[in-house]
Amino acid sequence: MEASLYLTYRALSSGAARLFRVLGLHPGPRVGELDAAALAGRDVARTRRHLAELCDAHLLEEQPQGHYVRPELVRLYAAQRAVAEETRSDRDLAVRRLLDQVARLRPARG
User: Mapping DSSP to helix (H, G, I), strand (E, B) and coil, where does residue 95 land?
Assistant: First the structure.
């Protein structure tokens, strides 16, 4: 399975490959396009193009309302690629952007 993932990953554009890696930093099997854009530090339109490329490569499956799912093995491979190819600083920054995004979208509690 890993050899197949490797070949599929290597065939991605650089932008889709980077998005794939940072999606590995997301803890769950389901990710929204806004969270994906936050992780990547890119605008939603560009992120949607890269998400479509990942779906075309069968690394993600599109769900209703702008959500995407991936098998656990794909998520784990993405996380491995993130550690191998992204600097610690870049990984930390991606997670910080995601947490900021979640905090902005979460309703204030009184």
Answer: helix
pLDDT-derived band at 110 (thresholds 50, 70, 90) equals very low
Q: What percent of the chain lies above the pLDDT cut of 70?
A: 96
What's the CATH code of the domain at 50? 1.10.10
Count how many domains the chain has. Answer: 1
Largest CA distance in the chain: 51
Q: Are 39 and 22 in contact (CB under 8 A)?
A: yes
- What pLDDT is recorded for position 108? 56
Give the domain range for residue 65. Answer: 2-103
Kindly state whether residue 65 falls inside one of the protein's structural domains. Answer: yes
